[in-house]
Amino acid sequence: MGKKIVILNGSPRKKGNTSALVRAFTEGAESAGNTVTEFFLDGMNIHGCKGCFGGHSSRECPCVQKDDMDKIYSAVKDAEVIILATPLYYWNMSGQIRTAIDRLFALEEGDGNLLRGHERSSALLMAAEGHGFEDVLLYYDHLMEHLRWKNLGHVLAGGNGDIGDVEGKPELQEAYDLGKSIR
User: By CB neighbour count within 10 A (0-12 exposed, 13-18 middle, 19+ buried), where does 122 fall?
Assistant: First the structure.
């Protein structure tokens, strides 16, 4: 039986290079029998974390804020694999995905930690104009350590400034292969 995979796509462009990596990954994952749910974060109404520590992980909607994160919380609770997909902006993840990651903290608060551990895995898909991934990889590795998620690796597609630049490049096959490897 396949795994439940959630993709948090932090790209602002549905047809951009990061989204091309997501499509390739999804094809591979679904061909291996997995179920993939993608959240295109730029099209969602998600507010920044208030830092209120008012969340309660056991609630259906654990955060005190009521916005589109409520759709993501239930999917993440049930997922075995979380894929973070984002363009590289100023040596970090996009604001769209950083906001969603910050808001996932509500699953760690209150009645029990429903985010950390739980046999979850993660991978990182990134596209960028340049190749300076070191800082974001350090952040990602620390995040995986904190969450106690197995790090499945990453696909880093540098040298892709314009929409469509990633087409025909080996990183698309790498994304497909990474998706297919999840069983």
Answer: buried
> What's this model's pTM, rounded to 2 decimal places?
0.96
- Taking each helix axis from N to C end, the angle separating 17-31 and 170-180, rounded to the nearest 10 degrees, works out to 40
Lookup result for tokens 């898909």: 125
Q: How far apart are CA 111 and CA 133, in angstroms?
A: 36
- Per DSSP, helices labelled H in 80-154 are 95-103, 134-147
Between CA 30 and CA 76 the distance in angstroms is 18
Single-letter residue type at 13? R
Q: Alpha carbon of 41 to those of 58, 89, 119: distances in Å?
A: 24, 15, 25
Length of the chain: 183
Beta bridge partners of 4: 35
Are the C-beta atoms of residues 157 and 127 closer than 8 Å to each other?
yes
**Superfamily of structural domain 4-180:** Flavodoxin domain (3.40.50.360)
Nearest C-alpha neighbor of 175 from the set 136, 125, 129, 131: 125
* Structure token pair of residue 112: 């029990």
57-115 tens-digit pLDDT: 888 889 999 999 999 999 999 999 999 999 999 999 999 999 999 999 999 988 788 88
